[in-house]
Amino acid sequence: MTDTTNETEAAPGPRTDGPPRLTRLTFHGPLSEARAHSLVQRLTRTNPATVLDIGCGWGELMLRVLAAAPEAKGTGIDVNAEDLARGRHEAEARGLAHRAAFVEESAAGTSRGPADLVLCVGSSQALSAAEPPEHTTEALRALRRLVADGGRVLLGEGFWERTPTPAELSGMWPGAAATDHYDLATLLDLAVAAGFRPEWTETANLDEWEEFESAYQADVETWLAEHPDHPLAAETRERLDRHRAQWMSYRGVLGLAYLTLVAAR
Ligand SMILES: C[S@@+](CC[C@H](N)C(=O)[O-])C[C@H]1O[C@@H](n2cnc3c(N)ncnc32)[C@H](O)[C@@H]1O
C-alpha cells in the first residue's frame, strides 16, 4: 500500500530528549484489537509451522500468531532496526524469543520461504520496486512464491474506497495520483490471478483509521505542546501539521484491505 506514514516520521534511531516515536501504537496500521483477534484465530486454524512476516516492523501480529500456535516458528524481516529491536524486546517479554526471529534485511528479492503463513501488512512496497499500482501485482506474485501450496497469506493492502477527487489528491502524499491504488474488486481479481483464492475479505473501518492516525501522532503532539522552545520544535510542528493535512485528505478515501488468501495448489 502507499505508506502514509514513513514520509513524515522522525528519523529512526536513539533520541534522548527529542520527540518520541510511535510509542502510542500497538500495530503500525489501522487494526483494532477485535479484528486482530479474529485474524489470529483464522490464520492459526491450519496450524502453521512456519510464519514469515514481510516488512514486520515490531511484528505485533506475528507475535500474537506465535502465541496462538505454540508449535510455530516465525521470522520477521524489516529494514528498520529500531522497530526490530522493539519486536525482539516484546518477544523476550512474552517468552517467545526462542520462536521469533527479527532480522534486519530487505524483503526485495528475498530467498526466504516457502512458509505456511506469510504476513504482509502495509508492506507490499517491500516486495517490488515497480511504481504503484503495478507494485501490488508484483508483490502478489512474490507472495505466491513465498507461501507453501495450501498455505495462507494475510495481505494488508491499500485501495481506494472511491475515486479521489483532484482536490483530495493534491492534499495527500507528495505526487499522489488516482493510479496509486486499485479498488477492492480489482485487488481481489489480482490476488486470484496470482494464484490465490480469497478465504476472507475485510477492510479497516473509520474507527480503526482514526485510532491509528491519532495514536500515530499523539505522543509527538503532547511532546510538542510541552516543549514549544525545543530546538526540534519547529521542524516537529511542520511535520505534524503536514501529516494532519494529508490524513484529512485521505480520510474515508484511502482504505486498507485485509485479505486472507489461500495459496491454491
Ligand atoms: C506500515 S509499516 C507496517 C509494519 C507491520 N507490517 C505492521 O503491520 O505493523 C511498513 C514496514 O515496511 C518496512 N519496509 C519498507 N521497505 C522494506 C524493505 N525493502 N524490506 C523490508 N521491510 C521494508 C518498513 O520499515 C516498515 O516497518
Notes on the protein architecture:
The protein is α/β, with parallel strands linked by helices. The chain has one domain (19-263): Rossmann fold. It is 38% helix and 21% strand. Strands 3-2-1-4-5-7-6 form a seven-stranded mixed β-sheet, sandwiched between helices. The protein is globular and about 55 Å long. It starts with 32 loop residues before the first helix and ends with a strand. The structure holds S-adenosylmethionine.
Report a brief summary of the structure:
It is an enzyme of class 2 (transferase). By secondary structure, the chain is α/β, with parallel strands linked by helices.
**How many domains, in number, for the residues?**
1
State the total count of DSSP E strands.
7
Strand content: 15-25%
Q: What is the CATH topology assignment?
A: Rossmann fold
C-alpha end-to-end distance: 26 Å
Q: Low-confidence parts, pLDDT < 50 over ≥5 residues?
A: 6-14
Determine the number of helices (DSSP H or I, runs of at least 4 residues): 8
- Return the string of H and E elements: HEHEHEEHEHHEHHE
> CATH architecture, please?
3-Layer(aba) Sandwich
Helix-residue proportion:
25-40%
CATH class: Alpha Beta
Structural category is: alpha/beta
State the shape.
Answer: globular
